[in-house]
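Re: the request from the purification team.
They wanted to know what the chain is likely to look like in 3D before they choose a buffer screen. I agreed to run a prediction and write the result into the notebook, where they can find it.
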Amino acid sequence: MTTRLALFDLDNTLLCGDSDHAWGEYLIDRGLVSAIEHGKRNDEFYRQYQDRTLDIHEYVRFTLAPVMHLSQPELASMHREFTQKFIRPLILPKAVALVNQHLAAGDYCVIITATNSFITKPIAQMFGVDKLIATDLVVQSDRFTGEILGTPCFQSGKVDKLVQWLNSEVAISAELQLQESIFYSDSINDFPLLQQVKEAVVVDGDAMLIDEANRRNWSCVSLR
């Protein structure tokens, strides 16, 4: 029997905010970067994301540059502090309930996000999903290089990364099928993947995505 695939965007869908942007705020809070200069660039990158003009390679270099000298254990310690102070307040109770509903129904739950795997892996674990698909990072000598490994999980890259994983042994054994899946997202950046699934659900969507949802008769809900 085929298991249904339930896909969830993370930022501004399951979270009431953006984890990538919050990472920049955390670096400012820790005094690791200039509040004015880093804050201004962080906000500008977020606007570019909303406008669909973001260069994700440039943004990943920006987010990692202040911590590329740190080892993975040092970064893990920072992430625990980041999670407690900046991520937990963004977790939506209705989002937790939604994921738990799908898990209880026996669906295979995947968070699929453009945000890099360093930031999002511990967050995905908090939600208890079966799988995280994120933008992967190059690591050399236990340090991030600031470069993306393989295809960025962004815009049409989300489709590419998901299809690549669906051809893996785990996904094949579960008989997971993209054309039978459900996908929850807030962003027009996810339009390529939303078009591929059986059921597209817009969650607290941006204006452009709501317009598309109205044209295509997609469901629109709020988890706020």
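For the purification team: The longest helix spans residues 35-51.
Please add any questions underneath this entry.
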